[in-house]
Specification:
Layout (H helix, E strand, L loop, with lengths): L1 E5 L12 E7 L5 E7 H12 L5 E2 L7 E8 L5 E9 L2 E7 L2 E7 L1 E9 L2 E10 L9 E3 L28 H11 L20 H8 L12 E6 H14 L4
Antiparallel strand pairs: 1-2, 2-3, 4-5, 5-6, 6-9, 7-8, 9-10, 11-12
Amino acid sequence: MKTVITLDDEKFGGNYYHAAHVEVIRGDKTRSAKYVDVDRLLEAMKNARNMDVFYRIGRLPQNYYDGTIRRESDMTISGHMLLTVSKQRIPLQFEETKYTIPFPALLFCFHIIHGRVCSTEVYALTGTQWNEKSVLYNYPYGNVNVQSHQVCWGSNSLPEITELRKLDVVCSLFYDSPCNNDYFTAERSVKWKTDNLRNVLEKLKEEEEFPEKLLVMSDRGNIGTMIKGIIKKEDRNGSI
């Protein structure tokens, strides 16, 4: 659909600032047009612009830590969302072997455009309660680049995000995804010098909780730094 706005000084004898000619051209080539008071038109355009604003959501229940989102006209979601997942001991498929190992608490950062998850960053956290001063650590296992911190989703098909709870499904897909030595890096993923993730899993399979002393601090600072970066990015795009 295309909208053409013409300030028509001929129609109104030079007083073109009182009215505008608005013509809507639809995809099927049908048209409709009318004259609209300029002040009302400007107010309508201002209200339409507000639909482009990302809104800071703050902390919500069920692990939604923070984020900036907007609802698109197709009812999908765009924006950035931070989710925390508590430490847990669950199965992990490594190549042909299934281990049950401890995971540290994780922070997921999702970038979403029109319901499509465009990128996912994952960081490890320490402790059980987090705030903006909580330090971000490298994810200790495979499937996450230790430099960009982005997840390699492989052949996984991620759901369309029409509501926030769909991100829980994406988190579950992450934990369920098989991994190998791709992106596992000695002394960067964990402090140990081994370059084989299997060696790490063999040592950790008897542990009830992930030993947080093995975590390597990332280059991204803390949660507060990440949130400020997101807000600055959205603000640069004319939002918030």
